[in-house]
Queue: 2 jobs
Job 1
Amino acid sequence: MTIAWMDPNKIRFITIHCTATPEGRNNSAAEVTRWDVELFGQPSYHHVFELDGDDVQTLRYDQRGAHVGKNNTGNVGLSYVGGTETLNAGGDPKDTRTAAQRRSMETRLRELLNRYPTAKVRGHRDWPGTKKACPSFDVKAWLTEIGLGSHYG
């Protein structure tokens, strides 16, 4: 497995994702990473938030993820396990974050913004040309709710 490098001093974006797995299915960060390696040849996200709130780092910040097409350089990817209503293919998008996932995601996001204060935060669906519901919630509204609305972009 070959992972590309990026300069961690040039982080410009933090992108929030979901794994598009059914509500309540307790997939581990290791499973998510294995799927990504099978699909993309490497881990996609820098952090995966499991249902119990565990924040598992799967890439270092000097390693480029595979999470936003051609916009991965200078971009930290965060993903929570969940994001769809049902197990069936094509399940409706749904914000399935547990309270523990919300807390750990907010904690990590605040730590990253302290480290990268000029970084802009957006959901995967907020990238131009993206036709996905990911992360299945309104990132701008959530950032405003937790007092980080000025970092949306």
Job 2
Amino acid sequence: MRARVALLAYLAAIVLATMVHEIGVLAAGLALVLALAGRQCLRILRRACIAILLFNLVVTLSYGVVAGLQGTFSLEFVVLVNLRVLLLTCLTFLFVSRVNPFEALAFSRSLTYLFTLAYSQSMAFKQSFENFRLAFKSRRIEQEGLRDRYRH
């Protein structure tokens, strides 16, 4: 029951965060999420920043180029979008760290089945990635550089 309530609260927070268009309110929401995370706040914030770095960089640069050419660039919009993505990502990491999704979706066999499929695909991909990483590492004589790790 607790997991189901947490799922509903999470979904409501997601909808609310996507409907808000004020930077201050989004910043307050992020502060609340990090306060709820407690000791894990820095870990969640770090993981979220790493997870969204490439996405936010591409979106921000693309917007900057297009809006700059049109003469409609707004720094407030850039901050708003990046803050919203950070809030949603931190909220998701907090939810996943505190709630068992299988327990939260237990009320619906279809949703549990769908989540099981997605989870198993994710774990298979993670295992394949780890196998490729270990194979790459075992075939190298010297330590690979950061450039080589990203290229392979």
